[in-house]
Fold each of these.
Amino acid sequence: MQSTQQSQRRILALPDHLISQIAAGEVVERPSAVVKELLENALDAGASSITLRLEEGGIKRIAITDNGRGIPADQLPLAIARHATSKIASLEELENVLTLGFRGEALASIASVAVLSLTTRTAEAPHAWRIENGAVTPASGAQGTTVDVQDLYYNTPARRKFLKSEQTEFGHCAEVVRRIALARPDVTFSMSHNGKVVDHWAASAIDKRSATILGDAFATARIALDEMAGPLRLHGFIGLPTASKGRADAQYFYVNGRFVRDKLLTHAVRAAYQDVLHGDRYPSYVIALDLAPSLVDVNVHPSKIEVRFRDSRSVHQFVFHAVQRALAQTSATAHGSVPAPSTADVGTLAPQFGSARTVGMAASKAVLHKPLHSHLPTPARIIINLRERSLAGLRKRPPNMAPCSNRMKQINKGFPATSELNPTSKPTTNFL
Ligand SMILES: Nc1ncnc2c1ncn2[C@@H]1O[C@H](COP(=O)(O)OP(=O)(O)OP(=O)(O)O)[C@@H](O)[C@H]1O
Ligand SMILES: [Mg+2]
């Protein structure tokens, strides 16, 4: 009976607000997703300073003010319409989109599940304009945009039930801000929660921003990394074993300036640390991979957190070897094979010491000659000890450890065969 009734129902095109609500389920998973979309918009608008005001973990309110270029009054209704964007105008541009990815429906999705108002002013406008409930009215305000999102999921109570406690939701929001602030140290970020300022990070360089956000343990035990191979560049900071943690919560990996949590990349880094880190410890790092946009698809996941590489195996190998060499470089430094850098100098490590490959070879030799190193500071000693153990392991392998070449095979297992990466395409750098 039921099925007969269903088969008689007419096929209807869904109204726009319902389509937006469906899309919102993917884009606006929780308050932190709103924070992410609004921050990306502010950065796309060229903001150099962004202020976030959150209430009740972002569930009650998320108001984000930027000093970017603003939106002309006549385009305001379009800004919150579905599939309206200033990012692309053609399929060709979609292929080459270099900004923070594209869906063109973030504001529309948010507006469909929360009370949204947007106040904006361009450099040319004599005053600001506000759009609220579809009406555009004059307003006051400086150049830039404020998007004010209140009462998330007020009209979809079923979704609201899935939200966690205020503190948990705030924690997710704060993590999104950290991810973006690390990618854009040149931008000032201020954040308040329930009227109290919780973070204020003035514009600075990546070494200072990462030290502020990841803390002293990372700031005093990290290695600068900068390697290129064909169209790939990997740069940033990786923590020494002393900066490792019991949880994987200090791992920031960026692809073309966007934070990603990608299994392939996480695996490559973890494998590179294999010889220097116990299995229950997680390395800390802030690293960026830059490559031609055509070699990576960033739109495979609604929140753009996963990526797909055209040649995933080459990317894995490149990341693995670059991180491994940088770790070896430190053990060489600790042996006096190369001058020891001060922590204040880490930003200039890579150019100062030339190719990491050469330094890595020096490291291996130094370790094989077993110099005395008990006078060295603890982080360096740990690396050397672990490295010695692993080199000894290569000479006399424990029964449960596969030979090095086999381990590399295991690492590569499961990834598609290598096809040559396009050597002519240039990497993009929008991190650091
Ligand atoms: N803070 C802002 N400052 C200036 N313009 C903005 C701002 N926020 C949104 N806009 C304008 O509104 C348009 C729509 O924004 P929306 O976030 O909905 O889509 P999008 O950013 O184009 O794509 P995506 O879905 O990937 O975020 C943007 O393309 C931009 O032109
Ligand atoms: Mg957007």
Amino acid sequence: MDWREILKTNVTHAGELEDIMHLNGEHEQEVERILERFPMSVPRYYLSLIDWNNPKDPIRRMCIPSLEENDMTGKFDTSGEAENTRLPGLQHKYGETALILSTHRCAMYCRHCFRKRLVGISEEETADNFEKAADYIREHKEISNVLISGGDALLNSNEALEHFLDVLSSMEQLDFLRIGTRTPVTFPFRITLDPELVELLKRYDRKKKIYVVTQFNHSAEITEESEKAVRMLLDAGISVKNQTVLLRGVNDDPDVLGGLLKGLTAIGVIPYYIFQCRPVSGVGTHFQVPILKGAEIVERAKQMQNGFGKGFKYVMSHRTGKIEILGAWEDGRMLFKYHQAKYDADRGRIFAVKLGENQTWLPDGLCGAGEV
Ligand code: SF4
């Protein structure tokens, strides 16, 4: 069966959840109101991973709208995406990396998404002219890698992907390409039912190294089907890396997070980053974990890993750069280090901040030498 046909069976309306969630009329209307702002689309496969007897089921939390999404505290662009946009759909924040927003579509609209402002809603921020984006990259020789993202990069057709890969793989200045997709987790059929896609990636990987970057957040997402998708990518020579988001009520427990990291390493997916959830409107207040607590959870989860599983960094994508959260210093202050910096003066800079117990983010003015 064609993966596009399967996606058409996604659950997109509150009414479809009525039976399984036992929504009453009033609750259903409230959920519908949330969906006017933030759409829902859940593949039947992902829905089947939910234990409906558990109202706190972590999979449910990531895909089913919650009334907490009405809290608009925070902002929609927390890491300066607008100010780093050079052309529609092309961001250039760190010298060596270009980011292409190739589509606004995803197989599933994650409730915790930091691009909630656009996924499933608007094409305004996606690349409308890939040739111009390619010209920009060619003119900026400092760019040595490109991340094709979105939305979900694998929601593009094979033809569109081939065009991107064809153009980018012929640029000598690039060392490698990354494809950002959550399909191995939320909709593995995009890979398992499309050998043509895997062949395509394999072919271009021979020209330019391709890394697939995905996002497993809980070990319940590691299933026979997702493992099969990962295996097909690995067999084709594609490296698969994982970026987990630390999410309250999903993986904010050392055993849960540690179990996930172990499970990933066991199927050949290398944990790469653990992201501090961003203070995004409709997301932050119910998904963020305080940094002090997060650092403790991550450290304990790390201690459960072997060397491979310990290679990841716990980071926040801040407006001033990707900041690694190192851990608490003996005087109680938290140590941070710029892993990637927007401003040259911040490159590799280590700094300490006395955090509040419930503090979940660093204010723009508190860090960033470029600000001073
Ligand atoms: S797949 Fe990625 S981009 Fe799409 S909604 Fe989920 S987190 Fe956001």
